[in-house]
Amino acid sequence: MVAMNDLSTPYVEVDGRAVDADPLFLALMGGYGHMTAMQIRDGRVRGLDFHLTRLDAATKELFGEGLDGGLVRDRIRRALGETGVRDASARVYVYAPEPGDRTVTAVILRPAVPEPGPQRLRSVPYARPTAHLKHVGVFGQAYHLRRVKAEGFDEALLVEPDGSVAEGAITNVGFLEGDTVIWPSAPALDGITMLVLQRELDRAGVPWRRQPVRLDEVARFGAAFACNSVGVSAVPLIDDVRFPPDPEPVRMLKQLYEAAPWDVI
Length: 265
Prior knowledge:
The structure is a single chain. By secondary structure, the chain is α+β, with helices and mostly antiparallel strands. The protein folds into two domains: 19-110, D-amino Acid Aminotransferase, Chain A, domain 1, CATH 3.30.470; 120-264, D-amino Acid Aminotransferase, subunit A, domain 2 (D-amino Acid Aminotransferase, Chain A, domain 2). It contains six helices and 17 strands. The chain has helices spanning 23-30, 48-63, 69-83, 139-150, 192-204, 248-259, and strands spanning 12-14, 17-19, 34-40, 44-46, 88-95, 104-110, 120-125, 155-159, 165-168, 172-177, 180-184, 208-211, 223-228, 231-234, 237-238, 241-242, 262-264. The chain is globular. The mean pLDDT is 93.
């Protein structure tokens, strides 16, 4: 029993059952942290260097200290070993229970996610705060994603107040202008698949650039696509603007991504 008026130790109930007030549990509930998500196949992942750089940079920005990539790899390997799986959808979270506390990492493994199909996008007026971080405060984008899925769409397209296209709720979005890949330059997360694609585009000599893209001008592009940790998908529809459902330039992007090297964790 907890003494009346004594809450020096937080009291927590879940579904009417008292549970230990673990500091990490309270940090998770607070929503201040960051993460990365990856698809693991046979103990390997594409763009591992980008994942480790992301985690280290965000940990420095949020908590004032770095995060050793070797430690992250060890903890993912440990989780894979404990579960006995080689294929998984993995997330690595970083928190500090209280300001000034050392950071803690949490690794979560779920079943591997299959490659996505075409993504139909519905635009919504929303810009993620501190969009350059893959932070855990995702209520806004989750809210809009659920709403557009209820309307029959697959993904929400986040649009700034001035009409600039930024990113998807859980994807980066790009366009094709002739042979050139166009990434919107509005504030957005540099997704790992996007970074891998940019590296492979450079290797293949395919031009790409960032530039402002307004929602009211997307119809001028020849094709559109979306990408995240589960792969690259054609975008056949944005609101009422239709694009080719399986254009050759998007097939080329998928082939470049699928040919990208896998890194041993």
